[in-house]
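Supplementary material to the annual report.
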Amino acid sequence: MSVDATLHVVRPSKRDAVLDWMQMLTGAGLILFMWCHMLLVSSVIISPKVMNAIAYFFEVTYMAQVGGPVIFLAFLLHFVLAARKIPFRAEGQDTIWKHAKMMHHKDTWLWVVQAVTAMIILIMGAIHMWVVLTDLPITAAKSAARIQGGFWFVFYLILLPCVELHVSIGFYRIGIKWGFIKSEGRAAFKKLEGLLFTIFMVIGIITLIRFMFLA
Amino acid sequence: MGRELQFEIFRYNPQKEGDQPRMQTFRLEETQNMTLFIALNRIREEQDPSLIFDFCCRAGICGACAMVINGRPGLACQTKTKDQPSKIVLHPLPVFKLIGDLAVDTGVWFREMYEKTESWVHTSKTFDPTKEEERMNNDVAEQIYELERCIECGCCVSACGTARLREDFMGAAALNRIARFVVDPRDERTDKQYFEIIGNDNGVFGCMGLLACEDVCPKGLPLQNQLGFLRRKMGITAIKEIFRK
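Predicted assembly:
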């Protein structure tokens, strides 16, 4: 039910602009974090000693103890901000699903992928962070023991592609939305997005396999 | 002998009592250089005079014949049947009010958009008909003309995921309209004034960057670049306003 006439006029506000800035900045920050995270964890491929040394460095500088929870808060904040755009009612979900099916349009589908992976990452990412941050320090041996249990191997096989998809699509989308990518550069940037996804997926899978067979 | 085309056309006339929305199949032999404009007219002439659809210029200028062609919003007059598979599915544009079958009312939407964006040159100068017109830099004139080419067919709005989800979203056509006045030196509106119109989730911050607008626009308007330009401009305007206090 709506009323056509109203005495209340919404005053112009900077609210939506600030929220959009924060959504972009938390997103960009998390993208950078995820790239660094993957590169640091994958140091186990070179040697578990390298990974341990890096983990030790973050431990003694308190970056893990302080940085970890900060990242967790940024993660939750990014969810709350970006969720403004995601339809949570069945009616809206039905609309966007039918729309994507009708359009046969890659970028529209990519948005659906982003929204779906967001929900998976929210739950699984939170579990991952809880498990790791409540059991500091991080060591290659502890990570390997977890993965070799089997359950966590499957857990990360689901979480990894979701994160990499979300991160590379998000990277592309920020560039598009804020006009850093012009229409001439769109096709090349989209290729870069696909390339980044592939590279990080390959590194991630090799890392998982390395943990699986770490003595 | 051309291909036999099979048309699946959405039929529903809200004016007709008891009419039910349904898909109706028509068959037609493809002729050389056939466009959907020709095909639909032939169907109406030869098979079903009750078929409702809009046409005017048949040259991609009036924007009246926009419809969803095999899932993608586009102009029927610019769509050649040879570029389509032999089965062509036609729907009316979503978001807009349905008049009947393939015809929708884009007029009311665009009129409201014009009112919302105050789509006219805002100037404090009084017009003097005897005076020579003010000169404009050719680059600027061309830039304005590029954005003025919008024919208001409504394809960008129908293709927009945000517009489908939220009826208060202004859509690429409106934002492009604002961009046109932003580059026009005759319009004296400030960034702050533009911000009041589009600096919110109904305007440029509602855009989710799906870029279907850019991909379906039959006139090839630079919508992606304009949306990015406006988001940055409005984002910076907001930051400036915050630090001004």
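The interface with chain A takes residues 68, 70-72, 91, 94, 159, 161-162, 164-165, 195-196, 199-201, 205-212, 214-215, 222, 224-225, 227-229, 231-232, 234-235, 237-239, 241-242 of chain B (CB under 8 Å).
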